[in-house]
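Appendix B.2, paired examples.
Example (i):
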Amino acid sequence: MSLWTAAEAAAATGGQAVGDWQVKGVSIDTRTITPGDLFVALKDVRDGHDFVAQALEKGAGAALVSHIPDGVAPDAPLLIVPDVLKGLEALGRAGRARMTGKVIAITGSVGKTSTKEMARAALAGQGRIHAAEASYNNHWGVPLTLARMPADTDYAIIEIGMSNPGEIEPLARLARPHVAMITTVAAAHLEAFGAIEGIAREKGAIFTGLEAAGSAIIPEDLAVTPILRDAADASGAIVIGFGDQGMARPVKAETTDGITQVRARVLGETLDFTLHTSGTHFVMNAVGVLAAITASGADAKAAAKGLGDWHPPAGRGAVEDLGGIRLIDDAFNSNPTSLAAGLATLARLTGGRRVAILGDMLELGPDEVAMHLAMASDPSMPAIAVVHTAGPLMQNLHDALPQDRRGTHAATSAELARMVTELVSPGDIVLVKGSKSSKVSTVVDALRRNAQTTRSEKEGQ
């Protein structure tokens, strides 16, 4: 079944189609391209036009280009447009226009990708589901997701991110969601926004893209909730708050062995569900997801059951057993809000010594030192036996910790990774967390290698 024919793609983009082709997917990477895909020659670190010949050799059905690249025959299957990114946007806009199902858009400072995957799992079985892959949430990720969307999609889940002012509104207007959800607003990308209120206003811009009588799902318990509510009201949205006092709220949550049983009240309906995690922030986001799904018109009870099939993505709070230790791999992102949530998850787990291995929280702006220092007073800290740190900013937390909780500090995560066997012991429960650029994931890799070596040695005895 084709996704786009040459004629459809040319009409969508105003481009010139060379040949009478059809494609069944859209790709921007020759490393993962599959036969029959439309290869989009975007410019990034390298110019995608340099890879068009390779894409066609790998079986691409056509390529979206701004000119015929060197080494590509003039009669090769192409779609020629003045600007490739704008062409992709136009294709995404057309993909959205021909789809008659419901669109749910998700943004937030923390938890966008995991919440998107929750929604995907919850909606499974309720029609044809289309969702963003990985963290495809930026100026090329959103149009790519829309361009890949089959016309007969029943529910689409679009993730929308930002790192600078003015990025969310055009993406929201491209996606035109029926329901838009904000997971939370936290001190992330503060360098670009100056204050958390600026971040809230940018997040609230997602509501400008809502379809008529659309629903805005907002966190109810934040200091900046009034900013989000004002943004939703300005867009004429139906506002649904989630949180301890919201129209969607958890009533009870009990965790045993890393699995949480939850009862929630969502828009007047009592829903029970299971999450394969112990993080309370995941519980709250799941309640928000159920509110969004209910607002979209899907079956809420079936969605609650579907949440039991969701697992935290790698690097985003998944708990795994590694050769005698329990690892919470949360090495993909970090800011004060998400770090506090990670520490709370660690504090709730029982059965061993609790160890935190933390890399720098980045892009926090002029108060970054104070924010690292403040984590020493986090309410979960007394439950944690030792905190190991890496990076110049985490040096501040290291110095502020009491002596009995102060572990090893290293200049880099790589240095800490080389000492990993000295940092943890069998039976420990270990949280590894930091901003992606802090590269604290190298510690996770070292822990996994050590566990594999230990396992191999035991099997060889």
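Example (ii):
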Amino acid sequence: MFADLLKNLFQPEPETLDNLDARRALTALLVRLARSDNNYSASEIIRIDRIIKARFGLDDDAALKLRTEAESIEAEAPDTVRFTRAIKDAVPYEDRIGVIEALWQVALADGARDQDEDALVRLVANLLGVNDRDSALARQRVDTRT
């Protein structure tokens, strides 16, 4: 199951992701961000679970299962560039702004801005084709809620 998703992500021309694989890819991207500062904290895990429950309409058990799958996928997926390309191809621009907002929610979940997390959000925004202005506005929306 995960092998097929990873194989698809790393093909020269990845196929469009189905709904479940798109959820896994997005959640794995959130996990990658949370792990980027080498401190995968409980507050970040809780925030990821909240995001995916709200975004995908999941209950606690389904969110836990999805995050656990995403943690395994993230650990095996070495290439953020191709990883985000699959999301870019599967998600409309407005929803990609929502992805950036979700990434900022995770980055700021522990109450501190980390330069590694900031750098990864900026890279992912660029790879997803989200312009700097929209990324900054997404961060500001998250800042005002936290």
